[in-house]
Design a protein that fits this description.
Shape: elongated
Structural class: mainly alpha
Strand order of the largest sheet: 1-2
Strand content: 5-15%
Radius of gyration: 27 Å
Number of helices: 5
Helix content: over 70%
Order of helices and strands: HEHHHHE
Largest sheet: 2 strands, antiparallel
Number of strands: 2
Length: 135
């Protein structure tokens, strides 16, 4: 009886007829990279807003805000303090939306800058060598 390791060793010792292709990535289209980075940044912005909403809902449903308000009120001596006035759903979602818009702008700009820098560095380095194998 042969083991699995012996079968794999015999299988790997056989000559395989795989065709390998090596290509150089010497240019990235600027507008394609900008569009892709914009779409990725928008998707991450949507994830950020939905995530902030879900975290706020979980914290609100578990009563964390009221407990923290009670603790802060006892420590400060102000019984009228409410954490929900400061961190209400509208304030949290507004802040998340502003951060998402800023991340979209910055992410798109970074994608454009990275593309330009790569296209300039290709003139010096010759490009990125990428290998593909057909198995």
């Amino acid at each position: 009886m042969t083991s699995v390791a012996d079968k794999l060793a015999r299988k790997s010792s056989r000559p395989t007829a795989t065709k390998q292709v090596r290509l150089k990535l010497v240019y990235i289209d600027f507008w394609s990279a900008v569009k892709l980075s914009f779409l990725v940044a928008v998707a991450l912005g949507i994830v950020l807003v939905v995530g902030a909403f879900l975290v706020w809902m979980v914290l609100n449903q578990t009563g964390i805000f009221t407990r923290l308000s009670d603790v802060i009120g006892e420590v400060s001596g102000d019984d009228s303090f409410s954490l929900l006035d400061t961190f209400g759903l509208a304030q949290v979602l507004g802040f998340a939306l502003v951060v998402a818009v800023l991340n979209t702008i910055v992410g798109t700009a970074l994608g454009a800058i990275t593309t330009v820098l790569y296209n300039l560095s290709v003139r010096i380095t010759g490009g990125l060598l990428v290998g593909f194998a057909n198995q």
